[in-house]
Design a protein that fits this description.
Radius of gyration: 18 Å
Largest sheet: 6 strands, mixed
Strand content: 25-35%
CATH class: Alpha Beta
Order of helices and strands: HHEEEHEHEEEHHEHEEEEEEHHEE
Distance between the termini: 31 Å
CATH architecture: 4-Layer Sandwich
Number of helices: 9
Strand order of the largest sheet: 6-7-8-9-11-10
Helix content: 25-40%
Shape: globular
Oligomer: single chain
Number of strands: 16
């Protein structure tokens, strides 16, 4: 979430937020992130803008510096502005070679080294009524739709990732609904479930041999909540047999609403505590999890 105070703090030079971490994300075969802001062609945002969830077209340079291959636009705030602006946002992303998931229920397919990955993105956080999202073809969660989408994607991809925008952004905790949706996704054939929007970071769980990441936290936000500032970059490793075999979590910290720091460089003591807490929860969930060289390493 790069809008609001973040844009002003960066003076719209979005690349500067990522200067300490971009080399990690660029090194991946694919880099994916939820994207919660519309893009305007203006060079600055009006102080009276009704929403913080809008950025200038210079955001593309920031996404490019991270090596972003695909983003999801299926989230609650993409309807804050007009349908025209939303369509323009999607057009700008696609013209800059960034795949967009969450439009209708069509998966995004990424392929490398003979392995094809399908990403199915869906929004389960509704502002107003679901019709506000449907008129913009933003995919909204329905069990039957998700089940059918996963089954179709399994016919065309080696790995199916279900990306859900869900939960509460101002209260910590995995809801019963999140747990049920995740299980439903795995039951339908998903190989990995990844969530966004829910406040904070939660331990990873395993269901029927598949990993569920309830919340990836934020890469950037202007939230003042402490739980919003401690986050991870999630590195999912898929082997040549098209199996998710491990997940590595690199701790990061959002400093002053403008800079993403490696947490160990920013505050080693707090980074240790953060990693040890999440790692212990992972182990309590029965995972083979350990802290190695400043990262949480999970073998599935």
């Amino acid at each position: 979430m790069m809008g609001g105070q973040v844009s002003k703090n960066l003076n719209y030079i979005y690349t500067s937020a990522f200067k300490d971490i971009y080399y990690i994300t660029r090194d991946s075969d694919f880099t994916f992130a939820p994207f919660s802001t519309n893009i305007t062609n203006l060079t600055e945002i009006d102080e009276n803008a009704k929403s913080n969830y809008v950025v200038t077209k210079d955001i593309i340079s920031g996404l490019s510096s991270l090596g972003i291959d695909a983003v999801s636009v299926s989230n609650d705030h993409m309807i804050d502005f007009s349908s025209t602006l939303f369509k323009s946002t999607v057009d700008i992303l696609e013209k800059n070679n960034i795949y967009v998931s969450g439009i209708s229920s069509t998966p995004v397919y990424l392929e490398k080294n003979g392995i094809k990955i399908a990403i199915i993105s869906s929004n389960n956080v509704i502002i107003g009524t679901s019709s506000n999202y449907l008129k913009n073809n933003i995919n909204t969660y329905k069990l039957e739709t998700m089940t059918n989408d996963i089954r179709k994607a399994k016919q065309n991809a080696d790995i199916v990732v279900v990306d859900m925008h869900w939960g509460r952004d101002n209260e910590y905790g995995v809801t019963a609904e999140m747990k049920q949706i995740a299980k439903n996704a795995v039951d339908a054939g998903a190989d990995l479930v990844v969530g966004s929007h829910a406040l904070g970071i939660y331990p990873i769980v395993e269901y029927k041999g598949k990993a569920i990441i309830y919340s990836t936290g934020y890469l950037m936000t202007d939230s003042d909540m402490n739980l919003s500032k401690e986050n991870y970059i999630f590195d999912v490793n898929i082997n040549i047999d098209s199996i998710v075999e491990s997940i590595s979590l690199t701790p990061i910290y959002i400093m002053d609403k403008k800079q993403i720091k490696f947490y160990y460089q920013y505050d080693k003591e707090k980074a240790d505590a953060f990693c040890n807490k999440i790692n212990e929860w992972n182990k309590q969930n029965g995972l083979n999890s350990d802290v190695v060289n400043g990262k949480i390493e999970i073998k599935l």
